[in-house]
Amino acid sequence: TPRVPDAAHAPAPAAPAPAPATPKPAATAPVAPPPQEVTVVGRTAAPSRGASDFQITVGKLAEVPRKNATELLTLAPGILLTNDGGEGHAEQIFLRGFDAREGQDIEISVAGVPVNESGNLHGNGYADTHFVLPELVSSLRVLEGPFDPKQGNYAVAGSAEYELGLARRGLTTKYSVGSFGTNRLVVLYGPSGESDHTFGGAELYTTNGFGRNRDARRATAMTQYEGRLARGSWRVGASAYATSYHSAGVLRRDDVERGKVDFFGTYDPAQGGDASRYSLWGDVETRSGDVLFRQQVFATYRSMRLRENFTGFLLDVQEPLHTPHGQRGDLIDLSVSEVTVGARGSGRLRGELFGQPQELELGWFVRGDAVSGTQHRIESSTGHPYHTDADLASHLGDIGIHVDSSVKPLSWVTLRGGLRGDLFAYDVLDQCAVGSVAHPSKTNPPGDASCLSQQGYGRYREPIQRATTASTALLPRASLLVGPAGGFTFSASVGRGVRSIDPSYVTQDVATPFASILAYEGGVAYAGGVGPLGLTARSVVFQTKVDRDLIFSETAGRNLLGGGTTRTGWTGAVRATGDFLDLAANVTLVRSTFDDTHLLVPYVPDLVVRGDGALFGDLPLPSVRGQRFRGTLGAGVTYVGHRPLPYGQRSDAIGTVDVAATVGLWHVDVGLTATNLFDSRYRLGEYDYASDFRSSAAPTLVPVRHFSAGPPRTVMATFAVTLGGNP
Question: What is the pTM of this model?
């Protein structure tokens, strides 16, 4: 914020005119005050990569109801969020025709710290942003497609970067209470006189859930401090998060229609999970001459436990060597713990050549992960594990270097792009490497053991197997921007992306431990105004090819490697801002097909429509002691078309409306929020596969429709007080 000149440097008030009775010499003209030098500290925004580079200021759209920071992603076009796993489970993200599951196909960072978890058994690249307080998110950059050389692992469908900040200074206490025994207490602190990027915040949340087995509780704390340097700034931050929750899982539609289970019921009350995350980070941004330097270090500890059952009593088949048994249950009990340390840095040179500004950046990234993960099957009657699916200990490395440039041969033509290179290193110890033996010992059969120490004909071997490998990926990326001319900028981009694979697929000395992505797009963006309104609009056509995609498997409870796929589509987005309103809308159409069969990729939506809007300002009410009442009204509308399912089926469409209203006076605000305003009973996630939740002796293998229920109407009241700062 610019400094206000002190009184010593302010211009002196004009002296009163002398009395006309006595002539005096003419007054000397007042001397103008010396120029004031003002220093503004801030961070330079990333240069645009074209029409699909959405640099979103949340602003008044924060008034639109959203339960958590993940839902802020819906401000970008084409994003659909679902959740089968419960309040503490990361949302499933659909973007541009990708089923990114819980982040496997979208690179996510918060304050520059990577969120994707390499080596997570539930999904390599699992990204849970529930540790972020939505009130502390100041802006988002969502880049749809791999077009920036700084994008790294998991930038398949694109990337999302959360920038943290708190505009409201002072101490704010916010308490929300509402449907289904939900309570949320938030405390936010922004010291006056400090940057918006200096803050602290904490949250305590509990709920009974909107149906059986949906209770949850969590606590979060985040803090960051920004300090100034002579020619730059530095930041340090920390976060802590823990949650425990239950999940209803999926239901068979035929059971619900026959009244055997309630729409909001559950088959297996043992489903749910626990998670925690603790992070530290620090970064410095300084300028030396024409070079801007950025350096960051980070460290994260993450743990999670997840219990899910997608098929009931179907997978526990009788093996010849096993003790005779019936179906014991398909409940998965997965546990992961991970330590991540890393750093990144860059230097960006800005200069002038041929009368135009030119830029060149060199940067690096390094990340190391130590991960341990196990997955067991749990016996329904006792809760005891009866089989080990996986037991892995992994050490993973990712070292990357990028070169990025911005070349302007003409004032209206810009070519941005460069090359990124990554080396992925794997050291994986499979501690349950042998699950079956073709010719077991007749005198000492392995019986019910999961991790065997036998090989063919009963010969002994250790039940472990280590595999190491490494491979490099070179990822060229480029964007051509023409304009602006009359507010319009035309762009075309091409780039390669990468997704490292699950450590369970690593084989000794076999290279290419990643999937390769090639993306193209062309679009036009407009930035200008219509009367008093600021207006931005985008229109983009795109195509993305993946050589090895991820497809959901109900038997494994996660995405598994599949064949190649191609996605082709169009996105349109518009946002209008003014003194009293903020409106945004977007539409995405996409067709996703397998390259070999040309069948539609299941589960991904081909039509997503989203609208957000907020009205705000002083209310036409009598003032109180000179203070006017202020009010806000926010609304969000979502429509999702019929999604393709396996076996040529289609899901139901989804349509929801969320609203919120707030009235404030002085430092007090009172609000009311309603999500799913019209109480639509909809199926948030839908699947087609075989299951047996009745433990029958001879289960059918005919695929049937399964679903997870969407939340019904939820009403919340909020009371907030701010002390010692701006309201």
Answer: 0.90
